[in-house]
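Researcher: Re-running this chain for the archive, since the previous output was lost when a drive failed. Same request as before.
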Amino acid sequence: MSQPSSSSPKPVSGGDIRDRLIIGLDVPTVDEARSIVSRIGDAGTFYKIGYQLAYAGGFEFARELIGQGKKVFLDLKLHDIGNTVEEGVRSIARMGVTFLTVHAYPQTMRAAVAGKAGSDLKILAVTVLTSYDDNDLIDAGYAPVAAAELVAKRAEQARDIGIDGIVCAATEAQAVRTIVGRNRLIVTPGIRPAGADAGDQKRIVTPAEGIRLGANHLVVARPIVKADDPRAVAEAIVDEIAKA
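Model: Regenerated structure tokens:
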């Protein structure tokens, strides 16, 4: 098993500390997303586009952001038969996005690795959604198992298959790091600045805690995009990351 270095993990995108914050554009229209990006300005360099925006013109907006020199994380959580995933990933790789998520099922992960071959696209495997706790897993039909145990098992499978990184709650980041080693990415959603509303997230930490626990990149959506001054919130989070 690969062991982590004692030094802090580095972000995939080089030395710009702003790249460690991924801003989730969880809004219903491209116009609203474009306005948020404009208001944030150079305080934001990396944006996530998920279901809500992707299916409302978000794919073309992703190309627009890339053309502006921004990095894009397509959070699509692909999961289908192998051929469908492989060809879908191959098409997405041609867009020039930086990250793409797939669900951490072995067949799906193997297909995604095949589909991104020859490109710079990084595939991130989603282990257990941060809105799930142990009871939710039981409700979903899993045998009694702790979320952390399932995260560890899927992280091991992802490592062996050659996935570039793991999406997990920051509360599991240290354990995942011991499994996947220092050279793979850990991206953590469920990040909330101190005093922010948790919303529907159940396994959350602050930005500083997320970095100290071993995350390379932090995903923050509602606390930024719903703020009166999204640029100020983004800048404060980046500052907290830098200090951590």
